[in-house]
Structures are given as C-alpha cells and as structure tokens.
Amino acid sequence: MNWTPLILTLKLASLTTLVLLLISIPVARWLAYTRVGFKPVIETLVSMPLVLPPTVIGFYLLLAFSPDSPLGLLLENWFGLSLAFSFHGLVIASVIYSLPFMVHPIQSGLSSLPQSLSDASRVMNKSYVSTLFRVELPNIKPSLLTGIVLSFAHTVGEFGVVLMIGGSIPNRTRVASIAIYDEVEALNYSTAHQYSLVLLALAFLVLITVYLVNGGFLKRFWR
Amino acid sequence: MIEIKISKKLAGTDGIFSLKIEQQIQTGQLITVYGNSGAGKTSLLRIMAGLLEPDSGSIRIDSETWFDSKQGINLKPGRRSIGMVFQDYALFPNMTVRENLMYAARSGEDKNLVDQLIDVVELGKLKERKPGSLSGGQQQRVALARALASKPRLLLLDEPLSALDREMRQKLQDYILKVHRFFKLTTILVSHDVGEIFKLSDRVMQLSNGHIISYLTPAEMFSQRHLSGKFQFTGEVLEIKPEDVIFVVSVLIDNHLVKIIVDQETASTLAIGDRVLVASKAFNPVIIKI
Predict the structure, then answer these.
(1) Structure pTM?
(2) Which of A39, A107, B115, B244 has the fewest beta carbons under 10 Å from its own?
(3) Is some CB atom of chain B closer than 8 A to the CB atom of A133?
(4) CATH topology (fold) of B231-280
(5) Is A124 an 8 Å CB contact of chain B?
(6) What single DSSP character describes residue B108?
(7) Mind listing the pLDDT tens digit for each residue in B52-103?
C-alpha cells in the first residue's frame, strides 16, 4: 500500500485545522459579542459550506484561482503562487469548507459564558486580549476541542472540493479520499479497502476522543 | 466626595424608562441602594463601574473625573479604582481561589495583599481549590476578597448575599463591614433586606423608576412610619385566614412564624407576599431569661 495519500490527508487536515483555529477565534468572538445589524449576513456566509454542495465551492474557487481570473493573476504575478491544482490551493479551499465546523462551537461556547466574567476582567483593568486568553478560552476548552476535532475530521472526509480544486496529482493533491475513488475505478478493491479502513478507524478514534473528553470520562485521569 | 449626576435611557420590563441620578456621597460611607426590581439599581452600579455608559452627565470622585459627557471623558472600568462583586460572583472557574485574586491584583508587588486578603476572609485552607468546588458562602467570600485585591477606593456590591441562607448572610455581612472599615472604603451595596440595611449602611438611597426618592439614614427611613411602638419587626405575609369575624395573618419574621389577629379592614389591605412591619406598644413586655 502506498502511504502517501494518507500522509497527505493528515498533513492537509492538520494544516487546515491550525489555520482555522487562528482565524476562527477572532471571528467567533466577534460574532458572539457584536450587536451590529449585519451580523446575520456574516453568520450566513460562515455557515454556507454546511449547505452548499462541495462541488459548488470547488468550482468557484477553481475559477477564482485560475490564471485567467483577476485574483489568480494577482497571486501569480505578485506572489508567484498558482493555487489551482496545488497543495496550497487545497489548504485554502479546506479552510473555507470547514470554517463553520470551527467557528460554530467556539461561538456558542463564548456566548454561553456569563457576561459577568468578561465584565469582571475589564473592571480588573485587563485588555480584551488577556481576557480572551486567560479567562474566556480556558473556560470553553470543550468547545475548542470540539471545533478542532470536527474541522480535522471534516477535512479528512472531504472529497468534492478536493477533486474540483486539486484533481488527483500523486504526492501533491491525491489525498486518501481521492485515492480510494481512483482505486475503485481501477478495480483495485483491496487497496481501496486498506485506505478506507484506515479512514474509518481514524474517524472513530477522533470522535470517541471528543465524547470521552467532553463527557468527563477522561477527566478523572487528569486530576 | 463622590458626585454622581447622570441620566440614561434604559429598557425595563414596562418599556423604556430613564434613570436620572443626582447625588453626592460622602467618601468612607457605606451606602445601600434599595428599591423594587427594575428600579435601576444594577444599572447604577454598572454606570459607576464604567460597564455601562450614561447618555449624559458626570461622575466625579474627589477631584478625579471618571465620566463627563460634555468633556468627552469616559474612563475605562479598569482605570476607575473599583472593586466589584457581581450577583453571580463571576469567579473565574479555570483559576484557583488564589489565582483569582492574583489575576485581580494590579501587579506582582501585591502578593502580600493577596495573602492578607485570604486571611481576612478566612480562606487559607481553600486557596488552592477551584471556585466550582466551593459552597455559595465561600464563593462569596472569594468574590469579596478578589474585589479588594486591586486596592479599590470604591467597592460595588450587587446583591451579593441574595443567594445565601440567613445564617450565612449574617456572617458575610460581618465580613463586608470588616473590610469596609479596614480598607477605609466607600461602599455601595444593592440590597432588599431591611435587616441587612439597618446593620450595614450609613445611608439608604431609595430608587423608584430610575429616580432617587429618598436618601436617608436607615433609622430615618424606616421610622418614617411614625409609630409609637417600641418593638418593630419586618416580615413577609405567608397566609391570611378568615376566622369568624376576624382574620389570622401568618407573618414570617426572621425564621419565626408569627400569627397576628387583624380586623377585616386591615386584612383587605394585605396580600400574601407583602412586606409588613409588625409593631407592638411596649406596655407589657414579658422577659424570660434563657
């Protein structure tokens, strides 16, 4: 069995999760506390990947990344980046595709904290940043874990977006889910089985970790 | 001297009303804010703390201006030298008792103060515990100590004792009085409990619909009823029961249930849940040594 598709999948999922974590914390915090009128518009945009067929996202991103589009041209000329059919393009597409899976848990975690906690921190002359890192985030660890794990798992499981934007270039964009499809098409059922089984086990492990941790089962070992 | 002169439109349960407060408070005093729910008590505290911005007016403490709408001054909550105890205590669940206090302290040099405060509220044994594992009374003491860790001049207490039982309340009232005197604070306390107000406060600010309707000493305020009674207690009506031509009213005073006979006219003015004053003229008191 060729391990590169699996390694590529894990690399893509880890990088996507990391980028998502950095982006989603400020976005989720803003969404949790803001009272501006256009908040529903932003919430809708963040949630769009939940309902859109992945191929739609992939299609538009492919158009945007192509050297014929203004964005693609700009990236090509200024940064020398060609995102279509590249690993970087996959990361960007995955970030957009999994955005709601990171933003929603963090946002609902922050909204469920009593307002008095951040008020108390403000009275103690603490900035928004230190309130965020020392009071708010430490008290929504289960939400953070849920966000991290769900975005990771969702990225591992994506197919349509990757196929549209990355194609199936070995060692570059041929992630495990695509590899399975290719192997089945080539009637290599045994290889397809191996990839599938690894993904199945990974999904099970990842999800059971969340439920064990958030359900408090593992807490007794940490005290 | 603290000078408050503010107005703010607030959304209450019966629609929008305006909070208009104009009052001078002598520093070093303990002031109770008293009034129906929705009268603007918590909003007044939040405005003092800088968590809520008034529409117009000014707040000055001694020569310092905390807020002035004309000059565009609005000091951040952290710059106002305030300690605040919230109704739900707002202890940080991720930090131990000591860490909660350390977080509130201005800088590392206040370590001694933190330890001193832990001693004052007698939490030495619990200082490494997280708030979630403490009782309501213990959490309240942590919140009180934490509010003092930044060496505030003004202590704001938003109904801090309302969730506690009577015995615990009395103990914590002593702590509040102790720290108020020990740290020479000006304290503003929101409270509904007449006994608590009598015990703690120098002045009572009575609010109704966003306005101050009186600013008196507790004795002045609660003796306005001009009774010649030598004994008087406040309680809550639990039951009104007609019996032949009279009515028996059960009143809860402290933990005691007292039955009082009233005529029909008086009974018709009472409803279950009313706060009442029970007074007796002292012509024949019985004293028994216990």
Answers:
(1) 0.80
(2) B244
(3) no
(4) OB fold (Dihydrolipoamide Acetyltransferase, E2P) (2.40.50)
(5) yes
(6) G
(7) 999 999 999 988 999 999 999 999 998 898 999 999 999 999 999 999 999 9
Distance, CA of A106 to CA of B161 (rounded, Å)? 33
Q: How many of the other CB atoms lie within 10 Å of CB of B215?
A: 15
Q: What is the number of other CB atoms lying within 10 angstroms of the CB of residue A177?
A: 19
- Whether A190 has its CB under 8 Å from any CB of chain B: the answer is no
Q: Alpha-carbon distance A26 to A40, whole Å? A: 17
Phi-psi region of B68 (alpha: psi -120 to 50; beta: other; left: phi over 0): beta
Provide the residue ranges of all domains of chain B, joining segments of one domain with +: 2-222, 231-280
Domain parsing of chain A, residue ranges: 4-216
Taking each continuous run of H as one helix and of E as one strand, the counts in chain A are: 12, 0
What pLDDT, on the 0 to 100 scale, is given for residue A15?
A: 96
> Does domain A4-216 sit in CATH 3.40.50.2020?
no
Report the residue of B75, B82, B86 to disrupt the A interface, i.e. the one with the largest count of A CBs within 10 Å: B86
Comparing alpha-carbon positions, the chain B residue that sits nearest to A133 is B94
Written as six digits, the tokens of A183 are 């192997």
Q: What is the CATH number of domain B2-222?
A: 3.40.50.300
